[in-house]
Design a protein that fits this description.
heterodimer; A: 120 residues; alpha/beta; six-stranded mixed β-sheet; 24% strand; B: 128 residues; five-stranded parallel β-sheet; 5 strands
């Protein structure tokens, strides 16, 4: 089954990211495919540097490098929360998370067999 | 998983206004999805029904109430707008307390069993 994950919680104030990571690992081990992981609302904080809680940027990057799925954060939510965006013109990203819009989330709902929300 | 060309997407709005941005950003996600010509439905339930109260003055908190966006939903082809009847009753609210979508439309109040049917009929459900 092709899955999309939506993460809405920040690393330290919510269990969302850790649960989503563990779920992703388990799903991939069971032979499912992760189509994309989209970070929205407070979930965008998961793109910040690793905090030692095992649920921030480094943990997600490692999973993504092994399994190649879309790792996206919502640029609107990022700006609203004051996260600094890179200034140069390269494909915009923070710590390997692609800066993207809600259209990406809509695409995930249409492409995946199941979308799971973590942190709501 | 139903196979059909037009996907049915349901956005559940369960969060109270002002305490967090969750519910308002959930409606924004629904508006973004409406661009893709699928069938979008919105269901306000639990504390999310407070989002729809009439006479909010969100400007006092520098916030635009979701209620103000409701009359514009049909411009995004979002015509399936529902409210959980039990959530209203639990909070002492009646339909007259809510904002009016527009002159030709009203929120459809759903009983719990009808909500189950609605969720069953969807391809994806997103919860905010």
């Amino acid at each position: 089954m092709k899955m999309a994950l939506l993460v809405l919680g920040a690393p330290c104030s919510s269990q969302a990211s850790l649960t989503a990571l563990r779920f992703a690992h388990a799903a991939l081990s069971s032979g499912h495919q992760i189509y994309s992981v989209f970070f929205y609302q407070d979930g965008v904080y998961c793109a910040l540097n690793e905090t030692g809680l095992g649920n921030s940027a480094e943990s997600w990057q490692k999973l993504q490098s092994d399994h190649r799925f879309d790792l996206s954060i919502c640029v609107g939510a990022t700006q609203k929360r004051g996260l600094t965006l890179p200034e140069d013109g390269r494909p915009p990203q923070i710590n390997g998370f692609a800066l993207s819009g809600l259209g990406q989330l809509a695409d995930a709902t249409l492409q995946a067999d199941r979308l799971l929300t973590f942190g709501a | 998983m139903l196979e059909r060309s037009v996907k049915h997407l349901l956005f559940l709005i369960r969060s109270a206004p002002y305490t967090s941005l969750r519910g308002a950003e959930g409606v924004e996600a629904a508006l973004a999805a409406s661009v893709f010509d699928q069938q979008i439905a919105l269901l306000w339930m639990d504390d999310g029904v407070y989002q729809l109260l009439n006479d909010q003055q969100g400007e006092a908190l520098s916030r635009q109430p979701v209620a103000k966006m409701v009359p514009a939903l049909h411009l995004y082809d979002i015509d399936h707008i529902f409210v959980c009847a039990r959530s209203m009753t639990e909070r002492g609210l009646v339909p007259d307390d809510l904002v009016v979508p527009d002159d030709n439309r009203s929120f459809k109040l759903l009983a719990t069993a009808e909500i189950s049917d609605l969720i069953q009929a969807q391809d994806q459900v997103l919860s905010f």
